[in-house]
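QA checklist item 7 of 12: single-chain prediction sanity check.
[x] sequence parsed
[x] length recorded as 118
[x] structure emitted
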Amino acid sequence: MGNKDYSNNEHKNSGITWKSILGGDILAHDFFKRQINLLCLIVVLTIVYIDNRYSSQREMIEIDKLKKELTDIKYDALTISSELTEKSRQSRIETYISEKETPIATSAQPPYLIKEDY
């Protein structure tokens, strides 16, 4: 009877079959019992890896969105700057003033520096 228990136990520990894998009996195998700490570490590291990858993908999406927004803002600033340059040209200002019929006119004399003596 003791010999029969030993052979049954040996067959139970050494046989890994598809049925034991699918049925979950493989987790009761001696190898898995001895390596439970390593398996837990592998599971934890896998979860950390997946979380890290997910976080980095979110950050990459945010970076792409911010780059696009920055490009749009740069184009807007360039457009506004060119409009300001166009509106502040002397010929444009003179045309605007003449259309409004104001008493302001362009000086015929060039500007000169007034020196003060102390």
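[x] summary fact logged: The two ends are 126 Å apart (CA to CA).
[ ] second reviewer sign-off
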